[in-house]
Write a structure and sequence with these properties.
The complex is a heterodimer of chains A (516) and B (309). Chain A is α/β, with parallel strands linked by helices. Chain A has 18 helices and 22 strands. Chain A has a 6-stranded mixed beta sheet, sandwiched between helices. A 6-stranded mixed beta sheet of chain A has the order 16-19-20-13-21-22, with helices on both faces. In chain A, strand 17 and strand 18 (378-379) form a beta hairpin. In chain A, helix 14 (411-424) packs parallel to helix 15. Chain A is globular, with a radius of gyration of 25 Å. The two termini of chain A are 46 Å apart. Chain B is mainly α and 309 residues long. Chain B contains 13 helices and 2 strands. Chain B has helices at 7-36, 44-62, 65-89, 94-116, 140-144, 149-167, 169-179, 181-186, 191-217, 228-238, 243-266, 274-278, 280-292; strands spanning 128-130, 146-148. Chain B has a two-stranded antiparallel ribbon. The longest helix of chain B has 30 residues, at 7-36. Classes of the chains: A alpha/beta (516), B mainly alpha (309). The interface between A and B is medium-sized, with 30 and 23 residues.
Chain lengths: 516, 309
C-alpha cells in the first residue's frame, strides 16, 4: 500500500454535535479517515478536538450525528465497545498503571486464556513479537514506573497494537517527548499507516502536523474550518485557520547591546525531591536586555533550577545566586522579589495564582501590603481596583470583570494575569517558566510580544521552556540542560533545531564544532 | 519473669497469640483487597460489631456454630452492599462514610443486644480441631495445629488473597483501579464493578472476623471489638498492602496481646499497671506505622472516588 493510502474510508463521522452546559463543543462536525492515512486534527484548546475523539472512543455520547466504521453504522457506548471495534486510543496523559509491569498493563482488560488466572507469559511473548515487528523496544517484565517517558509512549502503542487496533487515535502524543523521540515516533506511526491502519493525530504543533500528516482538518470553536494537505498549506496559514486571524509566529526582536549581568549563578548544585542531585554544579549569567533560553527535555533539572532561583528550593553549600550584584542565595522569596526578581512559575494554578481568588486579588497577591494599596493597615480597595482595572486593560485580559474568580478564566488569560502582576513590578530579572504551555496561539503571541518588550526595557530574562520553537524564537542565547548539567550555551545565530535537539538528548558536540 | 520462659507457658502464649490474631487477620486481609482497589473502609469495626452480635445471637437461639459463622459472613456482605452503594455509586467521601458505618454498627449492635439479649450469657465456643499428624508435633503442634477452623481459614486466606491479587485477572483489575482508575476505564475495565466486588469481599471478611471474635470468646457485650477493626485498617498500612505483610502485622499484634495477658496472669505486670499494659499493642502499632509507613506507597487512587470526565 502506498503512503497516501487508499481512497476508501475506515471512518466517517457525520454531523457530530455535542453540547455541554454553556458550550457547543462540537457543532455539526464531519471527519473522514482513510485506510493507510494519517489524518491530523488541529485546533486551539477548546476547539473540540478532544470531544470529537472522546465520542469516537465511547467516553461521551454525541447529541446528534452518526459514526460509520468500515462502512457500518456504529454507536460506541463505552471504551470497551470501541476496543472491540478495533479502535485504539493513545491519550494525552498516559493511561498506564505505574505499579504494574508492561505485560500486566497490556493484559489489563483483555481475555486471559487461563481464566480466572492471568496468562502473562503468553502476553509477554506477544508483546515481544509486536515490539520486534514495529521497532518498539521495551521489556515486558519491567514495572512501568521504572520506564522513561519515551518508553511509556511505546507501551501505549503496544497496548493498541496488542488489541489489533485498525483505527488509532493519538491525542497530543508528542507533548512529553524529545525532538529525537518525536522523530522515532513518527517513523513508527508512518509504518503503522503503511500497514493500512487509519491514524488520527491530534496536535497543536504546526510543524509536527505538517511533517506527519496526509491530511489536516482544522477545528475552531467546535466547527470544522477546513481540511487541507501539507503540500497545499503552510504554518502561517494553519495558524490563521486555527485562530481566525493572521498570527505572527516568530516575534520581531530588536537588537540589544549586551550590558551588565543582572542574574549571576555560580557553582549551583541542587537536590531534587528524592534527594538525588537534580542540578549539578552549573554556572551562567543573564545580562540586562537579554533573554537566556533554557532548553531541555522535562525532568533534566529545569524545574529545580527555577525553584532555586525563585527561592522555593534550597541549594547545596558552595553555590551562589546573585541578583543585580547582591548575593541572595540564602534569602527568602520576598527579599528576592524586593531585589527585583519577577517569577512566572511553571505550575500556574499551583504557584502562580490562587484559583478561588478574584482577578483583582491575584493581581495584588504580591504587593497587597505595599503603601499604595493600604491605608492605616487596612486594604485600600479603591486603589487596588484602579490598579487592577488598569492592568486588565493594559494586558488585554479577557475577563467579565476584575471581581471574577480567576478559576473561570481560560489558561491564556490566567497566564496574562500572572504576567501583568509580575511585569507591572518592573523586574530587573524575570524568571519565566513554560510561559505559554497549554496557552492558545493568540495568547502565546501576546505573551511573547510582552517578553520582548520587557527585554527592550532592559530586563534580564531567563526563559525555561520545553517548546523549542519558543526558545529559538525568543532567546539571545540558549542553554541546553541534560541530566542536571548545562551541556552547552549556544548563541541564537548558531542554533539550529537539529543541533539543539542533539544537545537535549545529551549528545555533546566535538569541541571544534562548538567553537565555530 | 523467669516463669514466662518455661516451655509450657511459651507454647500457651503462642497458641493464644494465634487465636487472638485471627479476627485481625481476617479483617485486615479483607481490607487489603478493598484498599488495593482504591477504597478505604473505616467502618470495619462497625461491620465486625454487627456481625459479631448476629453470630452470637444465632448461637444463643439455635446453638448452631456454623450457621452463626454464615450469619456473620452474610451480615458483612450486606454491610458491604450498603458501603459499596454509598461510596462507589453515589461517590461519597470514603473517610466520612466509613465512620458513619462504624457508628451505625456500634449503635445498632448495642441496641439489638439490649433489646434481644439484655445481660451477657456465655455461648458455645468454636471447638479446636486437631490436624492429623501435624498436631502431634511436640509443642509446635499444640501451638499451631490444635486451633479452630476459622483460624485455619484465616491463615489459608493469606496465600489465597495473595494469589487473587497477583495471579488472577480480577486481581489485575483490582490493582489497576486502585492505582490508575482512568487507565483501567480506558481499557474497558469497569471501575465501579471492580471496586464494588472488592468492597463485598472485604466486608464479608470483616463479617467473618466479627464471627471469629465472638465465637472464640463465647460471649458478647456492647462494643466488644474495642477498636479492633480500626487496628485492622492500620495493619493494612503496616503490611504495605500485601497479604503476607498483613499477616506479619496481625501475628505481631496477637503476640503482644497474648504476652500482656500472660504477664498479667503470671503477675509480672501488677494489677495497678494493667490498664497501662493494655495500651501496649496500640502504642506498638503507632510506632510500627511511623517506621513502616514511610517506606511504602499506598495505592495512588486510595480514597479517591472515580468519575469519568
Amino acid at each position: 500500500m502506498d503512503t497516501m493510502g487508499s481512497d476508501e474510508n475506515i471512518l466517517e463521522m457525520r454531523g457530530i454535535t455535542k453540547v455541554f452546559p454553556g458550550v457547543v463543543a462540537n457543532d455539526n462536525v464531519d471527519l473522514d479517515v482513510r485506510y493507510g492515512e494519517v489524518h491530523s486534527l488541529l485546533g486551539e484548546n477548546g476547539a473540540g478536538k478532544s470531544t470529537l475523539v472522546k465520542i469516537l472512543f465511547g467516553l461521551c455520547q454525541p447529541d446528534e450525528g452518526s459514526i460509520h466504521l468500515r462502512g457500518e453504522p456504529i454507536a460506541v457506548e463505552s471504551p470497551a465497545e470501541a476496543i472491540a471495534s478495533r479502535i485504539g486510543m493513545i491519550h494525552q496523559h498516559f493511561m498506564l498503571v505505574p505499579t504494574l509491569t508492561v505485560a500486566e498493563n497490556v493484559a489489563l482488560g483483555t481475555q486471559s486464556t487461563r481464566r480466572p488466572f492471568t496468562d502473562l507469559d503468553v502476553v509477554s511473548r506477544r508483546v515481544s513479537e509486536i515490539s520486534e515487528k514495529h521497532g518498539l523496544a521495551v521489556d515486558p517484565s519491567v514495572e512501568v514506573r521504572r520506564l522513561a517517558v519515551g518508553e511509556r509512549q511505546r507501551v501505549e502503542i503496544i497496548k493498541a497494537l496488542y488489541r489489533d487496533a485498525e483505527l488509532l487515535v493519538l491525542d497530543e502524543p508528542t507533548a512529553v517527548l524529545t525532538p529525537g523521540e518525536v522523530d522515532d515516533l513518527f517513523v513508527i506511526l508512518r509504518r503503522m499507516a503503511n500497514d493500512g491502519r487509519g491514524l488520527i493525530f491530534i496536535s497543536h504543533k504546526l510543524r509536527e502536523v505538517l511533517t506527519l500528516s496526509d491530511r489536516i482538518t482544522v477545528l475552531r470553536n467546535g466547527k470544522v474550518v477546513g481540511t487541507t494537505a501539507p503540500a497545499e498549506t503552510s504554518r502561517e496559514e494553519l495558524a490563521q485557520m486555527m485562530v481566525g486571524r493572521a498570527v505572527r509566529l516568530t516575534p520581531d526582536k530588536p537588537l540589544m547591546d549586551a550590558s551588565a549581568a543582572q542574574l549571576k549563578v555560580e557553582g549551583l548544585t541542587i537536590r531534587g525531591d528524592r534527594e538525588t542531585v537534580a542540578v549539578d554544579d552549573i554556572s551562567f549569567e543573564v545580562r540586562s536586555g537579554e533573554i537566556l533560553g533554557v532548553a531541555g527535555v522535562s525532568g533534566n533539572g529545569q524545574r529545580e533550577l527555577a525553584e532555586a532561583i525563585a527561592g522555593l528550593r534550597a541549594v547545596e553549600p558552595g553555590g551562589s545566586i546573585r541578583i543585580a550584584g547582591v548575593d541572595v542565595t540564602g534569602d527568602d522569596t520576598r527579599s528576592r522579589r524586593d531585589r527585583g526578581l519577577g517569577f512566572i512559575p511553571e505550575e500556574r494554578m499551583r504557584d502562580g495564582a490562587i484559583a478561588e481568588f478574584t482577578v483583582s486579588e491575584n493581581l495584588v497577591l504580591v504587593d497587597h501590603g505595599a503603601a499604595e494599596f493600604t491605608s492605616r493597615g487596612m486594604l485600600d480597595f479603591g486603589s487596588i481596583r484602579e490598579h487592577s482595572q488598569k492592568l486588565v486593560d493594559d494586558f488585554a485580559v479577557k475577563t467579565p470583570g476584575i471581581d471574577t474568580p480567576t478559576s473561570s478564566l481560560s489558561g491564556g488569560n490566567i497566564q496574562k494575569v500572572i504576567l501583568a502582576r509580575e511585569l507591572s513590578a518592573s523586574p530587573t530579572v524575570l524568571l519565566a517558566c513554560q510561559p505559554t504551555r497549554g496557552v492558545d496561539i493568540g495568547a502565546a503571541e501576546y505573551i511573547h510580544t510582552r517578553l520582548i518588550q520587557q527585554r527592550s526595557l532592559g530586563t534580564a530574562t531567563i526563559l525555561i521552556s520545553e517548546d523549542l520553537d519558543e526558545v529559538m524564537g525568543l532567546a539571545d542565547r540558549i542553554a541546553v540542560m541534560y541530566e542536571g548539567e548545562i551541556v552547552a550555551i549556544v548563541p541564537s545565530e548558531e542554533a539550529t533545531r537539529d543541533r539543539i535537539g542533539l544537545l537535549m538528548a545529551g549528545v555533546v558536540e566535538a569541541p571544534d564544532q562548538s567553537s565555530v | 519473669m523467669g516463669e514466662f520462659f518455661t516451655l509450657s507457658v511459651l507454647v500457651a502464649t503462642a497458641a493464644s497469640a494465634i487465636r487472638l490474631a485471627t479476627p485481625y487477620l481476617l479483617a485486615s486481609l479483607g481490607e487489603t483487597v478493598g484498599q488495593r482497589s482504591g477504597v478505604l473502609n473505616l467502618g470495619v469495626d462497625g461491620v465486625m460489631l454487627l456481625s459479631a452480635f448476629f453470630s452470637y445471637w444465632t448461637v444463643l437461639e439455635t446453638g448452631n456454630l456454623w450457621l452463626a459463622v454464615l450469619v456473620g459472613l452474610v451480615v458483612g456482605l450486606v454491610m458491604g452492599l450498603l458501603y459499596g452503594v454509598i461510596t462507589v455509586f453515589l461517590n461519597a467521601t470514603q473517610g466520612i462514610s466509613g465512620i458513619g458505618i462504624f457508628i451505625f454498627g456500634l449503635g445498632l449492635s448495642d441496641l439489638l443486644f439490649r433489646q434481644l439479649v439484655g445481660t451477657p450469657k456465655p455461648v458455645r465456643r468454636l471447638p479446636n480441631v486437631d490436624i492429623p499428624l501435624l498436631s502431634d508435633i511436640p509443642h509446635l503442634g499444640e501451638a499451631l495445629f490444635q486451633r479452630n477452623l476459622l483460624t485455619y481459614l484465616a491463615f489459608l486466606l493469606v496465600p489465597v488473597t495473595a494469589l487473587l491479587l497477583t495471579r488472577t485477572t480480577f486481581g489485575l483489575n483490582i490493582r489497576s483501579v486502585g492505582d490508575n482508575p482512568q487507565a483501567a476505564d480506558s481499557l474497558g475495565v469497569s471501575v465501579e464493578r471492580t471496586r464494588f466486588v472488592a468492597i463485598l469481599i472485604g466486608n464479608s471478611m470483616a463479617g467473618l472476623a466479627g464471627a471469629a471474635l465472638v465465637l472464640q470468646l463465647g460471649i458478647f457485650q456492647p462494643n466488644l471489638t474495642q477498636g479492633l477493626g480500626f487496628i485492622a485498617v492500620a495493619l493494612v498500612y503496616f503490611g504495605a498492602w500485601r497479604p503476607i505483610g498483613v499477616m506479619g502485622g496481625a501475628l505481631l499484634y496477637g503476640f503482644v496481646n497474648a504476652t500482656v495477658l500472660q504477664w498479667k496472669a503470671l503477675g509480672i505486670i501488677p494489677v495497678s499497671g494493667s490498664d497501662l499494659a493494655n495500651m501496649a499493642p496500640a502504642v506498638l502499632t503507632i510506632l510500627a506505622l511511623i517506621v513502616v509507613a514511610r517506606r511504602v506507597h499506598a495505592p495512588s487512587a486510595l480514597t479517591k472516588p472515580f468519575t469519568r470526565h
